[in-house]
Amino acid sequence: MALETTVIEDKLTEKFGDKVFGFVDIKDMFSFEVEAASANDVLRFLKEDAVLRFNFLTDVCGVHYPDNEVERQFAVVYHLHNWMDNVRIRIKAFLNGENPEIDSATNLYLGANWQERETYDFYGIIFKGHPQLKRILNMDEMTVFPMRKEYPMEDGGRTDKDDRFFGRKPDNVNNN
Amino acid sequence: MSDLLLPPELRYAKMIEQRQNEDGSELAILNLGPTHPATHGIFQNILLMDGERILDGEGTVGYIHRAFEKIAENRPFYQITPLTDRMNYCSSPINNMGWWMTLEKALDIEVPKRVQYLRVIIMELARIADHIICNSVLGVDTGALTGFLYVFQYREKIYEIYEEICGARLTTNMGRIGGFERDWSPAAFKKINDFLEEFPAIWTEFENLLSRNRIFMDRTINVGPISAEKAMSYGFTGPNLRAAGIDYDVRVMKPYSSYEDFEFDVPVGQSGDTYDRFCVRNAEVWESLKIIKQALEKLPEGPFHANVPDYYLPPKEDVYNNMEALIYHFKIVMGEVPVPKTEVYHAVEGGNGELGFYLITDGSRTPYRLHFRRPCFIYYQAFNDMVKGQMLSDAIATLSSLNVIAGELDA
User: Fold this and answer.
1) Would you say B252 and B238 are in contact if contact means Cβ atoms under 8 Å apart?
2) CA-to-CA distance for B237 and B256, rounded, in angstroms?
3) CB atoms A139 and B62 under 8 Å
4) A90 touches B: beta carbon within 8 Å
5) Residues in A touching B67 (Cβ below 8 Å)
6) Contact A153 B105 (CB under 8 A)
7) Domain extents for chain B?
8) Where are the transmembrane segments (chain B) (predicted)?
């Protein structure tokens, strides 16, 4: 008997109450939100519960929503997979825009290590309890977190490229 | 501050001093990489050595980081495909097809059966090319250059098939949303059939050369093993996970592109060592050949692309002679196509494991966020764990059997 998404929802609400919410099915994927403070407990419960058995952490990544209110400007997205029942879920934890912090999942999945380092490297999200939270793909001397939306892809001072006709914002062109 | 945050050479300097004081032995730091012929890619490993034995190591990655995720946020969907080519460049068609399927899932596009079968054929050819490289290079790293040169001719034949289909060889940029840019030519099918005819004998010979070879077995058995539990916790997928004994395969767990229509086995190993990884890849090549044969036999007639004029480029003759087609051509090329606001995760079984695309769209012409789940990146973190206590030469064999592709690792 496959694991129904309603069972996941019921079990989580029973255990965590209103700390988990926003259950929705988007494009074959059951998703919900979790309060950042209890994210680690929820992940542990999902992994260790005898019915849920989400044994595999597929992916961790960050998202930046600069247009949201301060409390919800960053999101850490976890994709979990239960191999026994073959169910995938997506969990989102929204974080504060000025001080993004969440507990590290390295205590549950060894594979979270580099993925969290990558998320830190690009978004500046602090994973508390991570054994080695330092940059991974960018160089250590870098001072910014480049995947945040406020960093443009190209140097704003470039004058050799005029993109106005191609629907891009003329950031790099002097319009005067 | 935790010691682990220090640069490894500082950490190791302490350990070296400690050992010196304890028993007078001299440990050494060895810098393996970033450009070393045996690493097959640009990654650095700083190893703490006791003679020939590795005590500890730390990898530095990111030397060819090209900010694909950032670039993707600034590009319309069609222009992202060339980025996916450059991730696992040993099997680019799988990356391309995975990306199209992600988009089709986001846009709710139903793809004709013929396209799905053609995609399966090209993805399995790419898998064979990927495994040819990995296994033959493992031979090279353990001292057998012959097998490598021998089977590489057939990688070349696969590239000729790509060329016949899309015009490119390594970074293919193959296909469109909803199908292929053109129907496959009879020459392409002929080349595939020739390949299917000639390759099995070659691959048998290659297997015979290595799989029961005393030297090769001594160099690979019990080298760089990983247990099933650990592999799972580290996020291993693909042949490396299956070598540890877990039969997880995206093609079976969540069939995409009609994989459910084909009969094939998922080969698994037992001990998760270098030899098992070699054997699993060998066996997967045979399974891929089986799938291609079935797909060619059952290949249905029909269109080679879905009927989605909003996303699929109109034929060139129409673009030159017909106003509407020209408009559509322009709109699609510039990315002015309707995109719903949605979130999609789609995974395909890449050459190295589960290659996932996590796409968030906000209705504009570019993705709001595109994250690539790159199997190499996730399992390479286990490397230092796997080689601890092993000899240096074993580390080289382990690295090459993991098939870490720098392009995919660094995105």
Assistant:
1) no
2) 17
3) yes
4) yes
5) 146, 153
6) no
7) 3-60, 68-410
8) none
**Residue A134 is part of which domain span?**
5-143
Instruction: Pick left, alpha or beta for residue B356 (phi over 0 → left; psi -120 to 50 → alpha; otherwise beta).
Output: beta
Please say whether the beta carbons of A74 and A65 come within 8 A: yes
Q: Residue A85 sits in a domain of what CATH number?
A: 3.30.460.80
Q: How many distinct structural domains can be found in chain A?
A: 1
Residue A156 lies in a domain: no
Q: How many angstroms separate the Cα of A52 from the Cα of each of A26, A36, A106? A: 20, 20, 20
B378: closest CA of chain A, how far (Å):
6
DSSP track, A25-60? EETTEEEEEE-GGGHHHHHHHHHH-TTT---EEEEE
ipTM of this model?
0.88
Within a 10 A sphere around the Cβ of A17, how many other Cβ atoms? 10
A57 touches chain B (CB under 8 A): yes
Condensed to tens digits (0 to 9), the pLDDT of residues B155-166 reads 999 999 999 998
- Interface A:B, Cβ pairs < 8 A: 106
Query: Tokens for B86?
Result: 């450059």
Domain B68-410 has CATH 3.30.450.40: no
- On whether residue A54 sits in a domain, the answer given is yes
Mean pLDDT is highest, among B41-45, B179-183, B288-292, for B288-292
- Which candidate, B285, B288, B292, places its Cα nearest to that of B117? B292
Is residue B369 within 8 A of residue B208, CB to CB? The reply is no
Q: What is the mean pLDDT of residues B190-203?
A: 93
Question: A76 in a domain, yes or no?
Answer: yes
Tell me the pLDDT tens digit for each residue of A58-97: 999 999 999 888 889 999 999 999 998 889 999 999 999 8
Chain B CB within 8 Å of residue A44 CB? no
Task: Judge contact between A127 and A116, C-beta under 8 A.
Answer: yes
Q: Nearest-CA residue of chain A relative to B381?
A: A114
From B344's Cα to the closest Cα of chain A, the distance in A is 6
Alpha-carbon span B410 to B408, nearest angstrom: 6
In a domain, A158, yes or no: no
- The Cα–Cα gap between A100 and A111 comes to 21
Amino acid at the residue B343: E
Using the predicted structure, report yes or no on whether residue A168 has a pLDDT greater than 60.
no
